[in-house]
Design goal:
Blueprint (H helix, E strand, L loop, with lengths): L7 H17 L17
Length: about 40
């Protein structure tokens, strides 16, 4: 999601679910996503 937030699948399926989770658990959300496979800079 962090790399392709505008991809149609993400916009239709994943983004609404994440927004719902943010509303249910606002204390568990971070302003920046934690990327698991981030390449070293």
């Amino acid at each position: 999601m962090a790399q392709h937030p505008g991809h149609p699948y993400i916009a239709v399926n994943d983004a609404p679910k994440l927004e719902a989770l943010k509303q249910l658990f606002p204390e568990r959300t971070a302003p920046q996503p934690v990327l698991v496979n981030r390449s070293p800079a």
